[in-house]
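Note to self: user wants both folds in one dump. Writing first protein now.
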Amino acid sequence: MRCNTIFVRLVIMHLVVVLPIILLGIYLYNWSYKNAGEEISRNTLAQLASYLQDLNREIEWLEIQQYDLLQEGQLHKISMIWDKMDNNERRESINYMLHRLTSIKGSSAYIKDIYVHIRSIGKTISAENGVYDFDRERYDDMRSALNAGESRLIKRNGALHLGVYRAGGMTGEKPAVLIEIELDADKLRESLRQINVYPESGSFLLDEEAGFMLASDDRTDHIMQHYLAAAEGATGNSLQLEMEGRKYHVDKAHTGELRLSVVALLPEEAVKRPLSKFTMWAWLFALASSIAIIVYSVSTYRVVHRPLLLLVQSFRKVEGGDLDIRIHHLRNDEFGYLYNRFNQMLIKLQTLIDQDFKQKLMMQKAELKQLQSQINPHFLYNSFFILNSLARTGDTERIELFTNMLGEYFRFITRDGADNVCLSEEIRHARMYTDIQKLRFSRRINVQFDDLPKEMEHIRVPRLIVQPIIENAYEHSLEKKPDEGFLRITFEMDSGHAQIIVEDNGNGISDAGIEDLKNRLASMDDSQEMTGMMNIHRRIVLTYGEGSGLFPSRSELNGLKVAIRIRFGEENRHVQTAGRG
């Protein structure tokens, strides 16, 4: 019943999630389709208005330059007293005017050329062509257009012009000086292309009364002719027009100051393209999702959920201590393999508990006893040697102190009880050993034995893991050293592990020997000879897991450094805290 409830919940959950998405998608499609054109129109009109404002500011600036030029003293001098000027003055005045024209032309990218028509001396000065004979045709066309006063921009020969003149001294007399600026049509086309939003869109400048048209490209120029016929009589700034079988979204902005309109055309498919397939994909998604959830739910229940539930229940029984459970599965599939391996795991687990684990424990205890028996004869010999030396000197106080330390030492290594002790007891025993050795090597070997940090005192560790490392330093390095020896025992701890570091300044081991020791400790091969350090390393690893044990390296003191590392993991958290309080 529970499985059926899960199945129904999966179907309902899928419908609850998918159906609102589909309905929302349909609504958004209709809303987007309706408002996309309006939004594009608003943005396009704002862009077109901004373009016209920029163009108007540019025209105003050019007009200011014209009027400034018209007031030039040199120009006035040329037009009024040319005949009275010598050749040098004429040349200087003309050069000055050429420089001014070139400077004005370079100040704006929209200027194609700038002309100064000086009727009184029969000359025309151009920024591009220099000084030449009076261009009467340009002069008359510009004068007529300026006198008509219909627009600030003069549309002539498919180009835009600006003009200003200074009237003659007598009424009805033709202007003595007329300044003409011709705008660069190519630059205007380039500016129009910059306002095209999409690759398919186009734009053009238009003055219907003057019959002036300037398109951003050849394709737009072709469409523009159809627009003039299709848009005749239309009202509003945004239109939907069909030209040559294609629908266009058309927006127009107008400026009365320049008597110019800028028109932008965008194919309707460019607006619809992101939305055209949305509805179809939404319904396909809904259908596919519904079929998928039904098929997936049924197949998941039959093929995965029911066999997995059986496996979970079996694991729970194993957690409760039932190792006799077996799972039977008739199909030869992945779950059949898992069930078979589960059954094999239980058999091997029982074998490990009954044989391997018990044998490991017996082997470790035997190795510990063997290590103790190896240590005792050598240490006893040295202890009796120290007692003999003290007795010969008659130092009864040190004899009493030494015998008390010796008794505590042997009591620790020979007592029965748990194999694990608090680290504080282990360090107390190791410190006792170094105090005994100080009596023997007080003049040759110095010892730095740091205090055990409070937070490390209650860590449970296997017995005899620190003192044998210190003894190894004495026997194999410090005793053989001809000059002064130094032994240092320090402690480190962080959230992940604790370390007891034993290092000396002896030279009893080479770099190759350290690498060999690292390799033998890392291999954990049962066929290797079981030395004292191997025994300690294995017991720590068995207690605390991988990442713990002995880690030898070259000490900063130039001797051997052995770090006894105890890693804190969830699997041995109880070992760390046992005995606390």
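First done. Writing the second protein, which came from a different request thread.
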Amino acid sequence: MDIRKISGQFFVAPQISEADLAAVKAQGIQSIICNRPDGEGADQPTFEELARTAGMLGLDMRYIPVSGGMVLDADVYNFAAELDALRKPVLAYCRTGTRSATLWSLAQATNMPLADILSATKAAGYDMNGVVRRIANGGTTPVGQADASYEVVIVGAGASGIAVAASLKARKPDLKIAVIDPADAHYYQPGWTMVGGGIFEAEDTVRTMGSLIPKGVHWLKAAVAACEPEKDALILDGCRVVKYKRLVVCPGLKLDWVGVEGLVETLGRNGVTSNYRYDLAPYTWELVSGMKSGRAIFTQPPMPIKCAGAPQKAIYLSADHWTRQGVINDIDIGFHNAGGVLFGVKDYVPALQSYVDKYQIGLNFFNNLVAIDGPGKKAWFDVAKPDAPVERVQVDFDMIHVTPPQCAPDFIAVSPLADAAGWVDVDQATLRHKTFENIWSLGDVMNAPNAKTAAAARKQAPVVADNIVADINGRAPVSQYDGYGSCPLTVERGKIVLAEFGYGGTLQPSFPNWLIDGTKPSRLAWLLKEKILPPVYWKAMLKGREWLAEPEKLTAR
């Protein structure tokens, strides 16, 4: 255990364990603050586990979780309040101790000279130079001073962010644009279903981020800590301030793995997998290809989720493999869906139901996964049928494919950009923010009632680009998004039900019925998914080439 003294009444440490708590008590510590969010690491004890043992030892314990690089002003306020109220001395910890040292430094900004704060943290092995300006500003973010400013700033370099940057550059080559994203890699996420089905290799779904940022677009490799739309400013990690004239918000959504008790600890082992993560999709295929008998269960959480058909795709491709291997009758397949229908657009249900019957899949509606014991091979679901009390049921498994709960990123959910549910609040046609007229959003993070898919982003990017250019030219919005989304449902190897629909579940097929009837399984649709869509993604959508994605002109409403 590595406890470091910051002051006579405050200490910092990297991650501690239950076994460390007695030693903490023996050193005279009276209270502990946890600054590490649960589920950040696979070997990390939860706050509740530590707090239970700490309480038995007479230690007070508080939970103020802070994501790496995202110490918000509100976090500092809460930390200072707890630090003042708790019995002294206090120990704070996170993964390395840096977040805790940063919180202390900012909390002391009005109580101690800057030099003393830097000296105390440096002596403990923590460098606070990255937040010096913030400490000097009384511990709060100095949004009035910009480190950089751009005509357009795009938050997120996923499918939406790079596509809209490329579309903007195609329209106005001289536009000064910055894309903000901390990731080194960019993933073609629609391919992960195929990886889990043994069709694609995982490495074929990834490119380096630097190779995809459009020429002439500035890449700020950082995380956004907070949004200040009233001041046209973004706060990045390290307290850097970026100003903008127009903002595009598309950081994607957050996969809430910790929303299922016990899931983080067992992912990637004990038969627990998910195609929603690059590193886990190959494990899905390992489990499927090695399974000869037993129980396989597949889960779907409450909406909204990215690609609502993905949980079913995993089932059908797995069941098709087991059918081809002649073991399907020895495997009990269950689909546990928190919703009440097989698919949200009724026109596609008959085709999907025929495969449910073919593979003998047990349908369990209103079943929401809440806890899992990987080593024990047990899962628990809350069953919330209409007009009935919630019942918790236990299901044993040999393999389980989990679709995690999903929500807006934390920095969005707590910002002025969000609606009551945490999503960016936009006009569903123009994709312009309802309150802040110089802000647009697209992709998974905004609240328009469309399917959250890459195909939707492909249609949204030109609309946002058109409307931003119109705004720059002093005009009203000129293009509208009709809610288009596509979900190629891989019902067997070689056949796909190509679901294409817009707002309200209106069918929006891209091809004539005689070529591809989206309500029926199609080999041509499989060819589209396997051979055509990946190149369209990499070579067209991310390059500003808007094939089959020309913006629809805005009509009077």
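Dump finished. Worth passing along: The mean pLDDT is 94.
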